[in-house]
Automatic annotation (TrEMBL):
Keywords: Membrane, Transmembrane, Transmembrane helix. This is Gx transporter family protein. It comes from the Bacteria. The chain crosses the membrane at residues 40-60, 72-92, 104-127, 134-156, 176-206, 331-351. The keyword Metal-binding does not apply. It comes from Candidatus Ornithospirochaeta avicola.
C-alpha cells in the first residue's frame, strides 16, 4: 500500500502520544519532572521530514498530548505548544546548519533546554518571576532525560515504523454547543478577581466530576498551588506574615499567588471535566485514534516491556476502537454555565465586599 505524506506525519504524531502514555506509566516524583519520551519521534524523523512537515508534527504532538491529558483548553496547552514549537524549530535549524557536526545527543540537549527555558519564562509571566529559580533544577534534569531520549531514538529505525492509513470519510464534526460551554467559562474565569469565588467554583467542578465518574488528579492541583506560593516568595509585597527559610511570605504576594493558582485550577478542572465529551475532528482525531491502537497493542502483548513497545510501534493490531458513547447531560452543561455566570456576577456585585 502506498501512503501519503500526511499519513506518515499522523503516524509519527500518534507515536508521540503513545510514548506520552508510556511515560505516564513511569513513576515521577513531581509533575514537571518528565523524561520527554514524546520527543523520540521528532528526533527520529529529523533527517527525513522537510521543515513544514516537521513543525506540523511538533504542533500535533502538543495538541494530541494536551487532548489526551485533558488540558487542551487551559493555559497548560499554550505552554506545551510554545515549548514544543520552539524546541522543534531550534532542533531543525541545528540539524540543517551544523549537519554532521552535531549528534543526536546534541540536538536532543538543544531541544530539551529550549523547551525548559520557554516553559519557565512563560510560567513566570503568569505565576511570578520566582518560577525562574526552577530553571537550574530543570536544566540539570534535562541533561539526563535528553541523553536518555537521544539514546532510545538512536536505536530506532524510521523504516520500521508502521504507517497506518486512515479514512477521510470518518471525520466527525465537533460539538459546538459543548465547545462554547467550555470557552465561555474559561473567559469568565480570567475576569473573576475574588479568590473565594474561584475556590468555590473549583470545589463545585470537582464535585460534579466525582458524581459523573471523572478521575481527579490531586497531585496536579497541589503542584499548582505549591509553585504559585513558592514563586510569591521572590516578589514580596505588603505585610510580612511569616518566613520560610529566611524568605518572607507577604500578604499581597500570597494573595496574588492564590488567585492565580485558583484560576488555573478552575480552568484545568473544567477542561478535564468537559474535554472528553467533545467530538474530535480532523487530524487530531486520527492521531488519538492511531495512538489508541498502539496503546491497546502494548497492553495486549505478552513479554518484556521492550518487546511490547516494539510490537506497538512496528506492527500494531488494527482493531475497532470503541469510542466513548457517554454524553454529558444538558443539565450539567446548563449547571456549569450558570455557576460561572453567577460567580462572575457576584464578583462585580455588592457581595464582593462581603467575600
Amino acid at each position: 500500500m502506498r501512503y501519503s505524506h500526511t499519513d506518515r506525519i499522523i503516524t509519527l504524531a500518534s507515536l508521540c502520544l503513545f510514548f506520552s502514555y508510556i511515560e505516564n506509566i513511569i513513576p515521577h516524583p513531581l509533575p514537571f519532572l518528565r523524561l520527554g519520551l514524546a520527543n523520540i519521534p521528532l528526533l527520529v524523523s529529523l533527517s527525513y521530514l522537510p521543515f513544514s512537515s516537521f513543525m506540523i508534527l511538533a504542533i500535533l504532538k502538543a495538541a494530541a498530548g494536551a487532548f489526551a491529558s485533558g488540558t487542551l483548553f487551559s493555559l497548560f496547552f499554550l505552554l506545551s505548544l510554545s515549548s514544543s514549537v520552539s524546541s522543534a524549530l531550534l532542533m531543525f535549524l541545528s540539524k540543517k546548519i551544523l549537519k554532521e557536526k552535531v549528534s543526536i545527543y546534541g540536538i536532543s540537549l538543544i531541544g530539551g533546554f529550549t523547551s525548559s527555558a520557554v516553559q519557565i519564562v512563560l510560567s513566570s509571566l503568569y505565576l511570578g518571576r520566582g518560577m525562574m529559580s526552577l530553571f537550574p533544577i530543570l536544566s540539570i534534569t534535562s541533561l539526563f532525560t535528553c541523553l536518555i531520549t537521544a539514546y532510545i531514538a538512536g536505536h530506532f529505525k524510521y523504516e520500521n515504523i508502521k504507517t497506518i492509513a486512515y479514512d477521510e470519510e470518518k471525520k466527525e464534526r465537533p460539538d459546538y454547543l459543548l465547545l462554547s460551554s467550555l470557552v465561555i467559562p474559561l473567559f469568565l474565569t480570567e475576569m473573576i478577581k475574588t479568590t473565594v469565588l474561584l475556590l468555590i467554583l473549583f470545589s463545585l467542578i470537582l464535585t460534579i466530576s466525582v458524581l459523573i465518574g471523572r478521575k481527579i488528579r490531586p497531585a496536579l492541583y497541589i503542584a499548582l498551588y505549591s509553585f504559585a506560593i513558592f514563586s510569591s516568595l521572590f516578589t514580596p509585597r505588603g505585610e510580612v506574615l511569616f518566613s520560610i527559610f529566611s524568605l518572607p511570605v507577604t500578604k499581597l504576594s500570597l494573595s496574588d499567588a492564590l488567585l492565580r493558582a485558583s484560576r488555573l485550577s478552575v480552568e484545568v478542572s473544567l477542561s478535564l471535566l468537559l474535554s472528553r465529551y467533545i467530538k474530535k475532528a480532523g487530524k487530531l482525531s486520527l492521531v488519538v485514534y492511531l495512538s489508541t491502537l498502539r496503546i491497546n497493542t502494548y497492553n495486549n502483548t505478552e513479554g518484556r516491556i521492550r518487546d511490547k513497545i516494539r510490537k506497538a510501534i512496528e506492527n500494531p493490531d488494527i482493531i475497532n476502537v470503541k469510542s466513548s458513547k457517554d454524553k454529558i447531560s444538558r443539565f450539567i452543561l446548563i449547571l456549569v454555565l450558570f455557576l460561572f455566570i453567577l460567580s462572575f456576577s457576584l464578583d462585580f456585585s455588592f457581595f464582593q465586599g462581603v467575600l
